[in-house]
Amino acid sequence: MSVSPVILADRDFHRASFLAWLERHRLDYVVRLKKGSCIIEADGNRNWKLGEEGLKPGELRFVEGVRYGLYHGRPRELTINIALCWKVAKSRAKKPEEPWYLWPRRSRTPKAPPTGTGSEDG
User: Fold this and answer.
1) Are 23 and 42 in contact (CB under 8 A)?
2) Could you write out the DSSP letters of every residue in 10-22?
3) Rounded to 5 degrees, what are φ and ψ at 19?
4) How far apart are alpha carbons 87 and 99 in whole angstroms?
5) Cα of 58 vs its chain's centroid, Å
6) Which pTM value belongs to this model?
7) I want to staple 65 with a disulfide (CB 3.0 to 4.6 A). Which of 37, 42, 74, 98 is the partner?
8) pLDDT tens per residue across span 94-116
9) Do residues 70 and 101 make contact, with C-beta atoms less than 8 angstroms apart?
C-alpha cells in the first residue's frame, strides 16, 4: 500500500502563484481560500467575491470550473473547483462566523481496495 501526502494550507496561502505552483507539480492539496477573493464564472459573464454568494449556516455548495483571482484587472488563467461550506456542528452552541471556502485537488485517482484473498478456489 502506498501513501501520498496531501498539503493542507490555510487562508494565508491563498496566493494564485502558490496555487499555480501546486498545480504545476501535480500535488494533492486542500487550500482554504480567503473571503473576498474574486471568482469569475467559466463563461466570463459574471464575477463575484467569496462571501457574496449568499451561503447560509448549514449550507454546502460546490462550484466547478471557475477562474480564481484577477491580475491587473483581468481574470487569471487559473481554473479551479471550490467547495463552499458553512458547517454547523450539533455540539456547538456558537455558530461559526463565516463559511469556509476550500479548493481541493487530487492529482491521482485512488485505487480500489483489493477484493478477495488473492487465491481463487476452482
Assistant:
1) no
2) -GGG--HHHHHHH
3) -65, -40
4) 7
5) 18
6) 0.72
7) 42
8) 666 789 899 888 755 545 455 55
9) no
What number of residues does the chain have?
122
- Other Cβ atoms within 10 Å of 1 Cβ, number: 5
Among 89, 105, 114, CA closest to 5: 105
Q: How far is CA 61 from CA 2, 36, 53, 80, 90, in A?
A: 31, 17, 10, 14, 19
The residues pairing with 48 across neighbouring beta strands, listed in sequence order, are 39
Cα–Cα nearest to 103, from 1, 3, 6, 4: 6
Distance CA 102, CA 70 (A): 18
Give the three cell numbers for residue 6.
496531501
Q: Which amino acid would we find at residue 120?
A: E
**Residues with Cβ within 8 Å of residue 27, at least 6 apart in sequence:** 5, 7, 105, 107
Give tens-digit pLDDT for 48-65: 999 999 999 889 999 999
Q: Which residue has the cell 479548493?
A: 103
Where helices occur in 1-122 by DSSP H, the ranges are: 16-24
